[in-house]
Amino acid sequence: xxxxxxxxxxxxxxxxxxxxxxxxxxxxxxxxxxxxxxxxxxxxxxxxxxxxxxxxxxxxxxxxxxxxxxxxxxxxxxxxxxxxxxxxxxxxxxxxxxxxxxxxxxxxx
Length: 109
What we know:
By secondary structure, the chain is an alpha+beta fold.
């Protein structure tokens, strides 16, 4: 399995975290739910640091390298400033009363 982390510095971008949050909620979350080989996707933000990013867990490199839905590069106004890939060593799922991990976060509050 492959982990890919992408980070944007929005300080020199034409968009805001609020606009990206709306984009997630209104467009891309549903699209990514149907991507073959994607086991988990989380989008992250740092308002104070004007940073935005994503963390994705993929079944294989081939699936991670396939064309993805959405227009994040267009909305952000540029490609990510940092892209890192790692092999997955282990996972653990904590014990929570939530029904699942889908649709959690500020975009859905």
